[in-house]
Amino acid sequence: MQAMSHWIQHFRDNSNAAYLIYLLLLLILIADSQTQLGFAHGVLYAPLLLLASLLNQPQVLNVSFVLAVAAVVLGYWLSPAAPAGFASVYVLANRAGAVICLLLIYLQTRSAMQLQQRESATRDNLTQQQQQLELASQLARFGCWYLDTHSKMITLSPQAAKLLAGNTDTQLTVSQFCQLFHPDYRSALQQALTACQEQYTAFDIECPCLPNESPPCWLRIIGHCCADDNALLQGVLQDSNAVHQSEMRLIQAQQRFQQWADSMPIVVWTAASDGQLTFVSQLMTTFSGMPTEELLLNWLDIVHPEDRERVMSHWQHCLRTGDPYNIEFRFRRLDGQYIWHLTRAVAVYDNYGQIEKWLGSAMALGAAAKPGQGR
User: What is the value of pTM for the model shown?
Assistant: First the structure.
């Protein structure tokens, strides 16, 4: 069988195989033309059609079929007369049977060839998709996992197993799987898996795994119930360490900015592009006695009533135009007195030239004024 497969492959790879088939057709026609009618030479073309189908080339099969039918018909006129006593009706029936046989073989082999080509295209497509998935998994660092709710076993893809530091197994129990993560997160992961099994609730959580060295690697775990099989859970493990580290760096940068702002002798504040305050330093909280959360939402409440309209009008103008904000007005101190402040802010633009946020400051001018006094 192996030798036959090797021969077929060698025959397909031979660039002259089609010409060999055409030559054999001609030889059979010559032999037919030298033989009396009635010897059924037409059926000798059938093996050549089968041979042509091995090439898996529709054009060669089509040409071979047409030539074979033409040769059967032509042989009827070229061959010597049938032996005496041999009825011509049998000669015609012989030739017609040969044509029908060739037609059936042609249709069958053509159908098989088309099916083989579709299967080959499907395999190529699946192979390409698999290669793309593997490439994507390498770039995005993710792998797949599956949980059989009957056996309570989790199957990991090779990529997923590599993401779990120190793990080499691709078959784990739910308990063994949860043990690969930080103790503080095991309970949440176990609850998410249980809810997904019992209530078909999808989940998306992040957990640090337990590597041999610190810091731990953060993984994003996504899971959902398979639509085709409720007994199967499937999901993805993705390396989210870079995202987590980026978020940690952002938090640290925010903490450093807050520490720097709180150490300044002036009030430091930031606002979103729409003018809503997003940060105010501790100095203003201490000065006004208003909690930070309330101050961010209702900072206008500590502005002197006589200044509010002027302050908001100028602030709205700057928000529309991007002009620097520069104005003096009064803030209410904790003891109820109003203190003049010089308040300034500049717009920060993004890469598209749009205002991203505002950076501002407020400096006390040192002169107190009772309500109703202006400046």
Answer: 0.46
